[in-house]
Amino acid sequence: MTLHAVCPYYACNEDDCDVGCGYITSHDASMISRYCSADYRACDKFQELLVRLGPDAARIGEVRIPVSLPETPAPVADKKNIALGLSGGGLSMLLYIGHKTGLYGADIRLPALLILLAALVQLSAGMAALKKRSVRGIMFIGGGLFWTSLIALDILPSAGFGASTAAIPMSGYLVLWGFFGLIPVQAGIQVSRPCRHFYGLGAAVLFMLAAAPFAPPVVTYLAYGLGLATGVCGLWAGFAYLLKRPVGLLGLDRKKART
């Protein structure tokens, strides 16, 4: 099997990727020097073709030829970044569900502080990832901003600090953030499988919490149960990134280790 020093899809088929096919523009020259002949695995187009055409074949005209792609594990810095983002989101979810179930009673100072710290961890992870992995950066920054705003809108008012938000506006707010949580689910290979699972489950929890004031009590209980499971999965996946590669419920394929 041949190991390609350049992108295996370079100048193969204009319908797949037109860089290197026909007239080379200044943009093409920039892409060739930056990605095709250097770090093609960082190219979004390569990742798209890798998913669409498969990791074991490059396309030349209408003929597929075998290709062996060198496996590049996720850098340690990336793993730590994902671990912080997932752990922060998982901890925030657990603490918030504990608040909604009345676990802390009237004293919510410590849970609110811990949620704020977990949100700041997510924000820092998102800012660190923003330059190289914009989708992941936006995902973690959005999560941090959501939990920070939820402290002011729901947690503090329940303890007497400010006026509580009415049911309909609060439900609309949760629905909007639920749709934001669906964005990483559609990001494909740009976001790792554990992140897609965690944000997908989180979106489901927010939709159920939004519907809870207008639905039978069983919806509330289901939302709390799913929220606890989501928080545990987020924490587990985050720590697994630091200790070992994630496996099981939020399993991570080795070929998708980069996010």
Features:
two-stranded antiparallel ribbon, 259 residues, mainly alpha
Layout of strands and helices, then pairs:
Elements: H1 26-36, H2 44-53, E1 57-60, E2 63-66, H3 76-100, H4 109-129, H5 134-158, H6 167-185, H7 193-211, H8 217-243
Antiparallel strand pairs: 1-2
Question: In words, what does this structure look like?
Answer:
The chain is mostly helical. Helix content is 61%, strand content 3%. It has a two-stranded antiparallel sheet. A hairpin with a 2-residue loop joins β1 and β2. α3 runs parallel beside α5, α3 packs antiparallel against α8 and α6 packs antiparallel against α7. The chain is elongated and about 70 Å long. The relative contact order is 0.12.
Q: What letter string, H or E per element, gives the SSE order?
A: HHEEHHHHHH
Spatial order of the strands in the main sheet?
1-2
C-alpha geometry: elongated
Mean pLDDT: 76
Q: What about the largest sheet?
A: 2 strands, antiparallel
Number of helices: 8
- Structural category is mainly alpha
Strand content: under 5%
Percent of residues in helices: 55-70%
Poorly predicted parts: 57-72, 246-259
Distance between the termini: 26 Å
Number of strands: 2
Radius of gyration based on Cα positions: 22 Å
Brief overview:
With 259 residues, this protein is mostly helical.
